[in-house]
From TrEMBL:
Pfam families xref list: Orn_Arg_deC_N
Binding positions for pyridoxal 5'-phosphate per the UniProt entry: 237, 272-275, 370
Classification via InterPro entries: Ala_racemase/Decarboxylase_C, DAP_deCOOHase_LysA, De-COase2_CS, De-COase2_N, De-COase2_pyr-phos_BS, Orn/DAP/Arg_de-COase, PLP-binding_barrel
Gene Ontology biological-process entries: lysine biosynthetic process via diaminopimelate
Protein name, as recorded: Diaminopimelate decarboxylase
Functional description taken from the UniProt entry: Specifically catalyzes the decarboxylation of meso-diaminopimelate (meso-DAP) to L-lysine.
Biological pathway: Amino-acid biosynthesis; L-lysine biosynthesis via DAP pathway; L-lysine from DL-2,6-diaminopimelate: step 1/1
Positions bearing N6-(pyridoxal phosphate)lysine: 61
Entry keyword Nuclease: no
PROSITE patterns: ODR_DC_2_1, ODR_DC_2_2
Lyase in keyword set: yes
Keyword set, alphabetical order: Amino-acid biosynthesis, Decarboxylase, Lyase, Lysine biosynthesis, Pyridoxal phosphate
Length: 411
């Protein structure tokens, strides 16, 4: 655990063993996800070490692969889930149901049925609600167990408007309604905590705003009586550097600022990093199949697409790229895109990269969070395989899909 916590705070594509990556691409074909489970453990342990007396839950939706959940559990992590399927997968990976937290956002009936069933045998399960409708629906199901209230702090933060949940009316109880809702929860259920998750991808620059949202949660906890709460959960959102010039979060400073923002509390502090734990632990390997000289740029066609990883198309995300086959070649400015027929299917415009040739393998870095998780079959593309590295060993964590997997449900 100690060595894990002492690991470097940032891992860039060039820090991977490039020869090994090229071999993996050769053996397992491309596009290929490669997840380093030792790095997952390091990231979790480093984060947890910065918040020694807090409860650090891994937010499963960033990467719900069994191998990742098992790695987090192995280093003592607990798991936050946002859907019934995530609860089931956490349990399948070995999580003790009493330690799980289920964050319900407009929960479908099936999700509530599942959570209430689970809680009947695991009264330690916590359900986080963001609307009083959810309370009504839980009461209808006979539930009177542990509830946390998700607060809408009215302040959103993060790398993109689509992840700035803290100011979005969809998430959480409107701030001024929280005391009244807390009274109701205390009457009908067991109020154990307050929760807020303000955004995602926060780096040093966004930390102040992020902490403003957190301070609203601390303030509300004191208003509703923190001495009667078990925990105050300030969510996730902690970013990693995607661009070469970006610096990693200073966790010590982050921890200090978060604590200051929360203020004096009797309740335990809880955090839910997702991205931070997995982002730099995974790369995508993709093979170059086309080089085309266009008047303004060199187009480099690869076999990964927005079906493999949708973040650049969906959020305009920057992902570092490295020519694994020939990192020493002189750089050219390239537009790197996949086989999908939309101009959104481009990983980078005018990006300097060691001059690619057909057959080269390119690594797309920081693919661990919301990468495989958002992979899809658009353009009838089977989802890629994922191999896992752990303790010097390689294993297939998920086999590559076949075309039969794509058409399996058709009748
Ligand atoms: C998505 C999510 C997280 C994790 O967010 P990251 O930006 O990946 O750290 C934490 N808590 C909740 C409730 C979430 O929905």
């Amino acid at each position: 655990m100690t060595d894990f916590a002492d690991s470097p705070a940032v891992r860039r594509p060039a820090d991977w063993n490039l020869e090994r990556l090229e071999r993996l691409a050769d053996e397992h074909d491309t596009p290929l996800y490669v997840i380093d489970l030792d790095r997952v453990k390091e990231n979790y342990a480093r984060f947890a070490a910065a918040f020694p007396d807090a409860d650090v839950m891994y937010a499963a939706k960033a990467h719900t692969g069994k191998a990742v959940l098992e790695a987090v559990l192995e280093v003592g992590g607990t798991i936050e889930c946002a859907a019934w399927g995530e609860l089931q997968r956490a349990i399948d990976a070995g999580a003790e149901p009493n330690t799980l937290q289920y964050t319900a956002v407009n929960p479908p009936d099936h999700d509530l049925d599942y959570a209430v069933d689970l809680a009947a045998d695991a009264p330690g399960l916590t359900i986080t609600i963001g609307a009083t409708d959810t309370l009504d629906r839980l009461a209808e199901r006979g539930y009177d167990g542990r509830i946390a209230i998700r607060i809408n702090p009215g302040i959103g933060t993060g790398h993109h408007e689509k992840v700035a949940t803290g100011a979005d009316a969809k998430f959480g109880i409107p701030y001024e309604q929280v005391p009244e809702v807390a009274d109701r929860v205390r009457e009908e259920f067991d109020l154990v905590g307050l929760h807020a998750h303000a955004g995602s991808g926060v780096l040093t620059d966004g930390l102040e705003e992020h902490c403003r949202a957190i301070s609203r949660v601390g303030e509300m906890a004191r208003r509703v009586g923190d001495e009667h709460l078990e925990f105050v959960d300030v969510g996730g959102g902690y970013g990693v550097p995607y661009r070469e010039e970006e610096q990693p979060l200073d966790l010590e400073k982050t921890s200090e600022m978060v604590r200051d923002a929360v203020g004096e509390l009797d309740a335990q502090l809880k955090l839910e990093p997702g991205r931070y734990v997995v982002a730099d632990a995974e790369v995508i390997l993709t093979e170059v199949n086309t080089i085309k000289e266009a008047p303004d740029t060199t187009v480099v066609g690869v076999d990964a697409s927005l079906s493999t990883m949708i973040r650049p198309a969906m959020f305009g995300s920057y992902h570092p790229m490295l020519n694994v086959s020939a990192p020493e070649r002189g750089p050219i400015e390239a537009t790197v895109g996949g086989p999908v027929c939309t101009s959104a299917d481009v990983f980078a415009h005018d990006r300097p990269i060691a001059e690619p040739e057909r057959g080269d393998v390119i690594a797309i870095g920081n693919a661990g969070s919301y990468g495989y998780e958002l992979a899809n079959q658009f353009h009838s593309q089977p989802k890629p395989a994922e191999v896992a590295l752990e303790d010097g060993e390689v294993r297939v964590a998920r086999r590559r899909e076949t075309l039969e997997d794509v058409t399996r449900l058709e009748r």
